[in-house]
Amino acid sequence: MKLLLIVLLLLAIPVLAVHTSDVSVVPQLSGASKETNFSFNITNNGKDSINEVRIRIPVEFSALKCGTAPNGWSLAYSDAIECNYKTVSNYLSTGKSLIFVITATAASKDGNYTWEVRSRDVFDGFSLHNPTSAVDATGPTIKTTTLNVPNGGEKWEVLSQYNILWSSSDIADSNLKNKPMTLEYTTDGRLWNEIAKNEENDGTYTWTVPDVKSDKARVRISVEDTLGNTASDESDSSFSIIPAVPVVAIGIGETKTLDVNKDGKNDTTIKLRSVSEDAAVLLIAGIAAPSTPAPNATSNATATPAPSPEKGILTNPTVTAVVVILILIILYLIWRLNQLEKKKK
Length: 345
Description:
Number of domains: 3
CATH class of the largest domain: Mainly Beta
Largest sheet: 6 strands, mixed
């Protein structure tokens, strides 16, 4: 009797172990705490057809959703951690493969995580596999000194072009996107506006400054890897966005009338008298002082005479500053014209 039992057990062991299969999972790498579709390719390497497949998520994963069964199969059972599929009419025969897709939310930490995939054949032979997939929860490395320009204190004119500069070598990640950079700006320190997205990490971007005056402007650069992890660096302190300085073109002997005191009237006359190799002589023919409101006729106060045009330029610092800036701009333009003329000769 004992001998018979032993023989029966020996006969049963091959039956239970007769089935083998190969199992692979895609993707091998997923983002942390992200809902991801995982595909399991199951190949029957045994001699008997497979009629059941069970897939169990790693214990660190969550929110399991069992996908639609392959043609000829149905979802027989599922719970929070397992999907159980059984054949209806299409057995997985020897040498054939089937793909089962399930959805789950990956773990929140870096690491390699183990799945449990069990396939069973028509004679109850089974194969157990434990494919692994990795989770990347770490953002790219970016130094706090990566952004170089603007980094605080600059004065950039509205609607002018300037180069945003950063040290591309300060950014690193084994899974970095092909075009990982996003650039943004703020004018109030709170609301960020997109400048560009999906840019190369080449260390430079030419930006046309918006028509918004601000003394609280900052730029931020962000970098993203293929799993959606990000890191960023921004200007260490604020820079200013200022109105553009007007450029006035004038030739020798020509006279221009400008609105220097910004009262809506072109009442400041300048004339270019002569040009030397490294200097120009401007004649300020006349500058109108800001208009003074007429005294109230019913008031007993004594009217104050309006300052003469000659004194207005001396007593109004705004007018003086604008005139000086205009003179410097014109001197520079004339010098550049001379340089170009010399090169042509």
